């Protein structure tokens, strides 16, 4: 029978190996008997006959069967019949059933010229509105437009429950210059599960989850789930408007770091996980009670291995199904915002795991990663490193960051393992890494990526913050890109954390020899916009809980922990504390079970909780402790040289925004009666916080009432006061006008 379709093309199509099925299927202009016509072709296996139906009221036109496997064609002259994408196919199946279906190959692509241009340039920052599974209505027919980047694939199919996981029916069309495959499939709906079946150049087939999938099955299942992301009615307008208009550097950040699966448990799901909605109410109530201003969530992007805590991400655009649906997580964020709590997500652009359904070797080639393991494999974690020098990879990551800020109203991203991104020789021996084009160890492509990420985030979402976990001496991490910096809002102060914990591990009798470990941080405190972290990393891998790390007997352990927190909360910088630390958990954190809430039956642990609650309140209510965290104008030493007594005295201030506060700290268990200390202002000073107060489990060495300055110069000041310094304690005094 006459046809213009190459027979070898039909053979490859029937075998599921045609490199671009759209060349054959759907409507195509042809010359027929010397006249212009449209050839409509369809491949419908297991059918006995297929008819073309132009309009619902029109009589079906039988299509010619060109291949016994189910390849059909109908020729429609253009002079009296116009065939458009709204035609239907009437199918008589071998089972005897007759159905009406739309033709996936008759639909115009969702990716238009501008999309293709931006994709090629690597600047399509709203990638999540084009790739992946996009709900779409075409000619009155609802369905899903699937798109995926796989430039080295020989062919790509969409498989799922809707086609009984037989991809022959839904081989995708390719945009040749982009390497993006696309197909609209009618009647697919939210909740349907799917994957991409990819034919690699070596002839092997591989099923992959969607890199831009908005939801995924509950692990260990690995399929992506078609999801509608625009159903939630947000009620956080006031929060979002206030965030846009605020200078985040001048606001209090008391961050409570949480692993959602093990903060509290008791749900009906496997492992006792709670739903995002239950967690929203419980966490918001607790944060408000404890005066935390922000939640930082360990990664909630979909990850196959629960024990990775989310740091080995596979579904970068999918909120993990462990705790509910995307709609449930939107409710979580919305409820936090309506109650004045910000939400920060841990984000992991430094590496990703090698799980077979994920990004690794996605289309049979090193697509998202480097081909050379000296660049593309992380030796510590056994994971792949993103190829930041590739436009499409940078585009993927930056659009992912914007996705969380846009679709989920997230207030900030804490970027994990930045140091591993900056250095080509990170955790590598000589000969295990490749220098940059100048012979150096800096990863120039990663640096460019981080700068672009920060510029775009701050430009498109004013008021959102970016936080770098960066542990080296790299300069300008939180400085603007136009000044040569990386552009982050904040940087974790890992130096402060390590020095301070090292100091506190010492028995107090030896601390006089380590005094500089406390004072050194103020030499560089204002070179970056620092956050002081006591994160999950400090209470895992055999380190023990913070309380168990403190030296001394039981009383001294609790007193040292109260002292550590009080010193941290009065030191310049924003604050972060991992869950369980706020009441002095004894055990090292374990993600398989909840933190030790039962310890709150004991006065000592309730005392620690009371202390953290009041320290948070102290920071929120006193601009001196948050407004000028990043400038030398907000801090002044009074006494930093008293190593013999292990005593510090310093002033926190925010001129024009409230009274100054003076902090006096005693790092030994010796009570220092009538301790003489210089003051920056004459007059009366009132004790507003004392870590040794009985409510915190302390011994009650406090300074009640007001303390009048003596008119005696001391510590280079014109005036001074005398106060009692409690054992292993901190006193905070406010100047009374």
TrEMBL record:
Active-site residues annotated for this sequence: 416, 469
Domain Glycosyl hydrolase family 13 catalytic positions: 257-613
Keyword Transferase: yes
SMART domains named in the record: Aamy (SM00642)
Gene Ontology CC terms: cytosol
Catalyzed chemical reaction(s): Transfers a segment of a (1->4)-alpha-D-glucan chain to a primary hydroxy group in a similar glucan chain
Pathway named in the protein's UniProt entry: Glycan biosynthesis; glycogen biosynthesis
Matching InterPro entries: A-amylase/branching_C (IPR006048), Branching_enzy (IPR037439), GH (IPR017853), GH13_cat_dom (IPR006047), GlgB (IPR006407), GlgB_N (IPR054169), GlgB_N_E_set_prok (IPR044143), Glyco_hydro_13_N (IPR004193)
Origin: domain of life: Bacteria
This protein's UniProt keywords: Carbohydrate metabolism, Glycogen biosynthesis, Glycogen metabolism, Glycosyltransferase, Transferase
Any one GO molecular-function label of the UniProt entry: 1,4-alpha-glucan branching enzyme activity
Biological process, per Gene Ontology: glycogen biosynthetic process
Enzyme Commission number(s) from the entry: 2.4.1.18
Subunit structure: Monomer.
Family named by the database record: Belongs to the glycosyl hydrolase 13 family. GlgB subfamily.
Primary role: Catalyzes the formation of the alpha-1,6-glucosidic linkages in glycogen by scission of a 1,4-alpha-linked oligosaccharide from growing alpha-1,4-glucan chains and the subsequent attachment of the oligosaccharide to the alpha-1,6 position.
Name of the protein described by the UniProt record: 1,4-alpha-glucan branching enzyme GlgB
Annotated source species: Rosistilla ulvae
């Amino acid at each position: 029978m006459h046809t213009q379709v190459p027979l070898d093309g039909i053979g490859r199509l029937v075998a599921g190996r045609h490199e671009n099925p759209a060349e054959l299927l759907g409507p195509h202009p042809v010359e027929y008997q010397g006249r212009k016509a449209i050839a409509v072709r369809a491949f419908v296996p297991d059918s006995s006959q297929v008819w073309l139906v132009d309009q619902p009221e029109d009589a079906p036109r039988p299509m010619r069967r060109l291949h016994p496997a189910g390849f059909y064609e109908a020729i429609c002259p253009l002079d009296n019949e116009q065939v458009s994408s709204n035609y239907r196919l009437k199918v008589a199946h071998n089972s005897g059933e007759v159905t009406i279906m739309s033709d996936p190959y008759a639909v115009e692509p969702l990716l238009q010229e501008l999309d293709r241009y931006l994709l090629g340039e690597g600047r399509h920052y709203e990638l999540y509105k084009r790739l992946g599974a996009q709900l779409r209505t075409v000619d009155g027919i609802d369905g899903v437009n699937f798109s995926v980047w796989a430039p080295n694939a020989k062919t790509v199919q969409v498989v799922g429950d809707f086609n009984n996981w037989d991809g022959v029916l839904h081989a995708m069309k390719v945009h040749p210059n982009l390497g993006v495959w696309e197909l609209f499939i009618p009647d697919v709906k939210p909740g349907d599960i799917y994957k991409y079946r990819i034919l690699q150049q070596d002839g092997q087939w591989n099923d992959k989850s969607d890199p831009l999938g908005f939801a995924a099955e509950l692990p260990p299942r690995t399929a992506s789930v078609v999801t509608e992301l625009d159903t939630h009615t947000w009620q956080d307008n006031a929060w979002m408007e206030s965030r846009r208009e605020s200078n985040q550097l001048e606001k209090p950040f008391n961050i409570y770091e949480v692993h959602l699966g093990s903060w509290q448990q008791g749900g009906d799901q496997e492992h006792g996980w709670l739903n995002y909605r239950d967690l929203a109410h419980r966490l918001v109530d607790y944060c408000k009670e404890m005066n935390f201003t922000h939640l930082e969530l360990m990664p909630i992007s979909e990850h196959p291995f629960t024990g990775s805590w989310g740091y080995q991400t596979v579904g970068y655009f999918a909120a993990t199904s462990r705790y509910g649906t995307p709609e449930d997580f939107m409710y979580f964020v919305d409820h936090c915002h309506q109650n004045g709590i910000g939400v920060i997500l841990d984000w992991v652009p430094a590496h990703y795991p090698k799980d077979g359904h994920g990004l690794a070797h996605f289309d049979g080639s090193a697509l998202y990663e480097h081909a050379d393991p000296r660049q593309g494999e992380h030796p510590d974690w056994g994971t792949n490193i993103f190829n930041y020098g590739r436009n499409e990879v940078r585009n993927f990551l930056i659009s992912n960051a914007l996705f969380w800020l846009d679709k989920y109203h997230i207030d900030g991203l804490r970027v994990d393992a930045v140091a591993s991104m900056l250095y080509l020789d990170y955790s590598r021996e000589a000969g295990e890494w490749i220098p940059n084009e100048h012979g150096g160890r800096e990863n120039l492509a990663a640096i460019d990526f981080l700068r672009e990420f920060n510029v775009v985030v701050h430009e498109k979402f004013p008021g959102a913050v970016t936080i770098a976990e960066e542990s080296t001496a790299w300069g300008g991490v939180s400085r603007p890109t136009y000044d040569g910096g990386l552009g982050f809002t904040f940087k974790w102060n890992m130096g402060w954390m390590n020095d301070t914990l090292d100091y506190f591990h010492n028995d107090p009798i030896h601390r006089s020899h380590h005094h500089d470990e406390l004072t050194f941080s103020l030499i560089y405190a204002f070179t970056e916009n620092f956050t002081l972290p006591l994160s999950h990393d400090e209470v895992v891998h055999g380190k023990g809980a913070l309380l168990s790390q403190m030296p001394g007997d039981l009383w001294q352990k609790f007193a040292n922990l109260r002292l550590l927190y009080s010193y941290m909360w009065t030191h310049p910088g924003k604050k972060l504390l991992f869950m369980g630390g706020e009441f002095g958990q004894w055990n090292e954190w374990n993600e398989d079970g909840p933190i030790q809430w039962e310890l709150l039956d004991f006065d000592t642990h309730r005392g620690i909780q009371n202390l953290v609650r009041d320290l948070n309140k102290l920071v929120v209510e006193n601009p001196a402790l948050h407004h000028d965290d990043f400038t030398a104008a907000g801090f002044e030493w009074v006494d930093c040289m008293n190593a013999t007594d292990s005593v510090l005295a310093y002033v926190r201030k925010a001129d024009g925004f409230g009274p100054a506060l003076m902090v006096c700290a005693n790092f030994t268990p010796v009570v220092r009666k009538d301790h003489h200390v210089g003051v920056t202002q004459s007059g009366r000073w009132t004790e507003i916080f004392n870590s040794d107060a009985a409510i915190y489990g302390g011994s009650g060495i406090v300074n009640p009432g007001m303390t009048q300055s003596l008119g005696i110069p001391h510590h280079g000041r014109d005036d001074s006061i005398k106060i009692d310094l409690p054992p292993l304690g901190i006193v905070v005094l406010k100047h009374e006008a």
